[in-house]
Amino acid sequence: MADFSIDPDFAEQLEWIKEFVAAEIEPLDLAFAGEGFVYDKSSIFYDEAIRPLQQVVKDRGLWSCHLTPEYGGQGYGQVRLAYMNEILGRSQFAPTVFGTQAPDSGNAEIIAHYGTAAQKERYLQPLLDGRISSCYSMTEPQGGADPGVFRCRAVRDGDEWVIDGEKWFSSSLRYASFLIVMAITDPDVSVHKGASMFLVPTDTPGLEVVRNVGVGQEPPGHGSHAYVRYDSVRVPAENLLGGEGQAFVIAQTRLGGGRLHHAMRTVGAVARCLDMLCERALSRTTQGEVLARKQATQEKIADAWIELLQFRLQVLHAAWVVDQHGGAAARKEIAAVKVATPRVYREAVLRTMQLHGALGVSNEMPLPSMLMAAVTMGIADGPTEVHKFTVAREVLKDYSPAPGAWPSEHLPERRAAARDTYADLLERAIADS
Ligand SMILES: Cc1cc2nc3c(=O)[nH]c(=O)nc-3n(C[C@H](O)[C@H](O)[C@H](O)COP(=O)(O)OP(=O)(O)OC[C@H]3O[C@@H](n4cnc5c(N)ncnc54)[C@H](O)[C@@H]3O)c2cc1C
Question: Does the pLDDT of residue 164 top 90, yes or no?
Fold first, then answer.
C-alpha cells in the first residue's frame, strides 16, 4: 500500500520553506531575471544575495537534501524530496538557494559515486560548497537521443587522454569551472560499452566554445547552452571518471533521481498555473459576469485541478516506489512521469494563457517562458517518445501471448467454458422457467 505521509517535524519544515521561498527568493526571480545570475558564482549578486540565503538554508538543515549526510546533505527519501521540490519549483532561484540546482546536483552525485579521493577533493568539494559551477557535456550536434551516432573520441596517449570532437547544448558551460565529458574510448564495441566519462577543467587548451545557444526568444549570443569543440584536449589519465567504458552506467546514476526532481518541481509550476487561472476567473468580467460563472471556464478549472491532482499523485507514487525498491525497480514509473511532465505542464500553461487573453501571451506574464520550459521538458533528458517505449517495454513484461488462436477475452470460448461449469444448473434453470 503506497504511503505518502510525512511526520509533523517535516510538515513544519515545509511550511517554513513555503514562506521563505515566497518572501525571500521569489523577489530575486523578479529583480534578477535571466539565467546567468543563477549560475554565475563569481558575481557580486551571488556573494551578496544568494550566499546569505544559502547559509539560512544550511542553518535550517535543508541544504542539498538529495545528497547523503556524508556529502553534507540530508539523505532525504524521494517522497520527502517530492514535497520539498514542488515548493522550490515555483521559483527560478529556489533550487540554487537550496543546493539542488541542475546540472551541479547531478554532477555532484556522480562524482560522489564514482570519483577517486583526489577527484572528490578537487571537483566535488568546491561544487558542494557552492564555490564553483559545472557542466555536463554529452549530446552531440548530430544527435542526442541516439548515442549510437556519437563521434567524440578520447584516445590514450601515455599518461594522458586526448579528446577530439564536438558537443552541443552543454548547458551553463560559460559559468562552469569543469565539464564532465562523455567520449568514445573503444569504437569496436557498442557505444554503451565503449564510452567513458572525463573530468575536464574549462581552461584546458583546445577547448573552444563555438557559440552559446539560447532557447525561445533569448537573443543570439545570450543563451547558456554551449556548442563546444574539443580539439586535441589533453587531460591526465587520472581524470577518467569511473572505469573505462562505464559512461552509460554513470549516466544512469545521474539521470535516475534528477528525472524525478524535474517532475517534482513541475508539480509546483502546474500548481502556480492553477492559482493564476482561478484568480483570473474570479477577477475578469465579461458580458456582465465574472469568467468563473461561465461553464467553459468552470470546465477549464475542473480539468486543471484534476490534472494537477493526478500528476501530483503520479509523481509521489513514483517517488515512493524509488524509496521502497530503488531507482532501477522504478524504471517504468520514472519513464511514465517523464512522459506526463511536459504534457501536463503544457496543457496547464495553455489553459491559463487562454483565460488571460492578450495578457497571457504577453511578456508581462510568466506564461510564455513557462510554455518554453514545458516544451523543453519533453526533449531534455531524452524525448518523450523514447520514454514511452520504456513504459511500453516494462508494461509488456507482465504479459504473454494468448494461449490459442483466439484472445483470452474471446466471448464464445469463455462462454462455452462457463456453460460447461454450470451445465447441470443451466439445464434445470431452463426447465424450471
Ligand atoms: C534546455 C536543454 C538543456 C540541455 N542540457 C544538456 C546538457 O547540459 N548536456 C547535454 O549533454 N545535453 C543537454 N541537452 C540536450 C538533450 O539531452 C537532447 O536535446 C536530447 O537528448 C535529444 O537529443 P536531440 O536534441 O539531438 O534530438 P534528436 O535525438 O535529434 O531527437 C529529435 C526528435 O526526434 C524524435 N525521436 C528521437 N528519437 C526517437 C525514437 N527513437 N523514436 C521516435 N522518435 C524519436 C523525437 O521527437 C525527438 O524529440 C539539453 C537540451 C535542452 C532542450
Answer: yes
Q: Are residues 110 and 195 in the same domain?
A: no
How many domains does one find in the chain?
3
How many CB atoms sit inside 10 A of residue 163's CB?
26
**235 and 180 in a common domain:** yes
Q: Which atom of ligand 1 is nearest to the CA of 383?
A: 49
Decide the pairing of beta strands 285-286 and 195-201: unpaired
Provide the CATH number for the domain around residue 235. 2.40.110.10
**Residue 382 CA: which ligand 1 atom is closest?**
21
- pLDDT band of residue 268 (cuts 50, 70, 90) is very high
Q: Record the cell numbers describing residue 343, joined without a space.
A: 504534457
On whether both 340 and 276 belong to a single domain, the answer is: yes
Task: Name the residue with the closest Cα to ligand 1, atom 45.
Answer: 385
User: What CATH number does the domain containing 49 carry?
Assistant: 1.10.540.10
**Which residues form ligand 1's pocket by a CB distance below 6 Å?**
103, 136-139, 143-146, 169-171, 215, 225, 376, 379-380, 382-383, 385-386
Could you tell me the residue range of the domain that residue 386 belongs to? 249-396
**Is 266 found in the same domain as 236?**
no
Kindly tell me the burial class for residue 372, based on how many C-beta atoms sit within 10 Å of its own C-beta (0-12, 13-18, 19 or more): middle
The CA-based angle 289-293-296, given to 5 degrees, is: 115
pLDDT digits (tens, 9 = 90+) for 393-421: 999 999 999 999 999 999 999 999 999 99
Pocket perturbation via mutation, ligand 1, pick of 171, 172, 343, 387 by most ligand atoms within 8 A of CB: 171
Beta bridge partners of 179: 135, 200
Question: What are the start-end ranges of the E strands in 42-140?
Answer: 134-137
Let me know if residue 413 belongs to a domain: no
The dihedral through the CA atoms of 85, 86, 89, 90 has a sign that is negative
CATH of the domain at 301: 1.20.140.10
Model confidence over 44-68: pLDDT tens digits?
999 999 999 999 999 999 998 988 8
**Is the domain of 392 the same as that of 253?**
yes
* pLDDT interval class at 72 (50, 70, 90): confident
Measured from the Cα of 139, ligand 1's closest atom is 11
Q: What's the predicted TM-score (pTM) here?
A: 0.93
**Same-domain check for residues 54 and 167:** no
